[in-house]
Design a protein that fits this description.
This protein is of the alpha+beta class and 92 residues long. The radius of gyration is 13 Å and the shape is globular.
Length: 92
Amino acid sequence: MKYVLFYESADDFRPKVPLYIEAHRVLWKKFHEGQTLLLIGPFMDAPAGGAMGVFTTREAAEAFVREDPFVLHGLVASWTIREWHEVLLAPL
């Protein structure tokens, strides 16, 4: 089982991104090196932004949200975590 974290961006997130992007990158590198973050990135087809990350545990996804500068500084309007069953790499 995997856990997908979805972010919806705040209306005024774009001007704030340069202020917090490096701290955000440090955080996702920490989780990736700890092997609990598998994929992360923004959606590129929506002017409102948004992003997602795929985690190995719900606890890791929740910890990421608690520490993320984008959440702490209001770049994220809302977030959700959904349990996801990966079928290509998971045993059937």
